[in-house]
Amino acid sequence: MSLLNKSLNNDEILKLFNKLEDKAAINEFNACGFNIWPIIRMSVCFGLISARYNKNTMKELTLKERRGYLYKSIRSLFRGAKKKKSSILFITHTNYLETINEVVYDRVHYGHVNRKISQGDDCIRLNLANKEVSYLNGNEKRLELFSLFRFIKFLSLAYCIFKIPVDWKTYKRLYSINKFFKSNGVYLTSTLLKIPFKVAYVFILSKFVNRSLLLNNVNAVYHSYYYCLECMAITLAARRCGIDTINVQHGVQAKYHPAFGMWDNVPKEGYELLPDEFKCWNKASLDVINNWALNNKHHYATVSSYHWADSWNKEAIPYNYNILRNESADYFNVLVTLQPSLHGIQDIVKECMQTTERNIKW
Question: Alpha-carbon distance 42 to 62, whole Å?
Fold first, then answer.
């Protein structure tokens, strides 16, 4: 039985994983025609980190709804002529969407969407929380893909069983990874056993996405978090279609974040599962990427600011700003933001809230 060590913090996890990267033959971890090391890295690191997370549940669709959505999803992918007008695909999550005065804003892609629409591009949003596709130029719902993603997972299970004997040399190396972590007191057997299925899912999904990207004449893909399996599949499909892939910073992009910091022994040709460009809020975030990507021509970082925060500071978002002024007047205001792995407000913050002066508003 696998046991995820809950005592490891992010820097300990990454330092341990770097030891593995320094000794592993990363170029030899190929399956289904691509290097699967990013899947291994994300599975191991986030498997350990997520042991500290609070689990949230989603509302399940009825069987009748799934069947209807599945039929519409498959029909939309394989019917219709290719669009002549270029499109930009923005991939996001419900966590990043804010509704203000009945208008839905994406705080991560805000600014980039406005610029592309002003340039005459069609902008498409894929919300990975509910697999809903929206056409942003008219802000109308277009398609629900939840059942299609579930169907592809089912296909991937069968394909995985077929591919394991073909790629057995690669998957055999997972044993050495398990042995390495076990020697360091970390047990990851169940996590590593899921890798072949995850690889098959990324591969099969990329084939479906490839067709959709071409039909919609997509010429750029913007991620809000590139490192989930669905995003890596879309990146793989986009790269093989010659489409630019960009990750837009969504939060703190620190050195000890497994998706952004401390990548060791990166192949010269880069990874097909990682985006071409990382758009960062500031130089500190840029440096985290450049520390490993600067000498790799396939991945690079640029500074593009945080347009959502800038627009609020400039009062460019349609909102009654007098409400904010009245609530914050005569106070030193402190904004506390949380991560799902923190299980609420930390004790040190609670203590500060209880002992600070009254003119400080939390």
Answer: 31
Express each pLDDT in 186-196 by its tens digit. 999 999 999 99
CB of 265 within 8 A of CB of 295? Answer: no
| Nearest partner of 22 among 227, 180, 254, judged by Cα | 180
The closest of 205, 113, 100, 97 to 153, measured between CA atoms, is 205
Q: Which residue has the tokens 């190396």?
A: 173
Strands 103-106 and 140-144: unpaired
Task: Assess whether pLDDT exceeds 60 at residue 69.
Answer: no
**Average confidence (pLDDT) over 143-149:** 83
Distances (CA, A) of 223 to 7, 48, 56, 67, 345: 31, 24, 22, 28, 29
CA distance readout (Å), 179 to 74, 172, 192, 333: 42, 12, 11, 50
- The mean pLDDT value for 14-22 works out to 94
Helix (H) or strand (E) holding 38: helix 37-49
How far is residue 44's CA from residue 28's CA, in Å, rounded to a whole number?
Answer: 18
Contact 331, 361 (CB under 8 A): yes
First to last CA, the chain: 44
- DSSP structure string for 191-205: HHHTHHHHHHHHHHH
Structure confidence at residue 146 (pLDDT): 82
Provide the edge-to-edge strand list for the sheet that holds 300-303: 140-144, 132-135, 122-127, 87-92, 218-223, 244-248, 277-280, 300-303
CA distance 213 to 25: 33
Residues forming beta bridges with residue 87, ordered by sequence position: 122, 218
Map residue 232 onto helix, strand or coil. Answer: helix
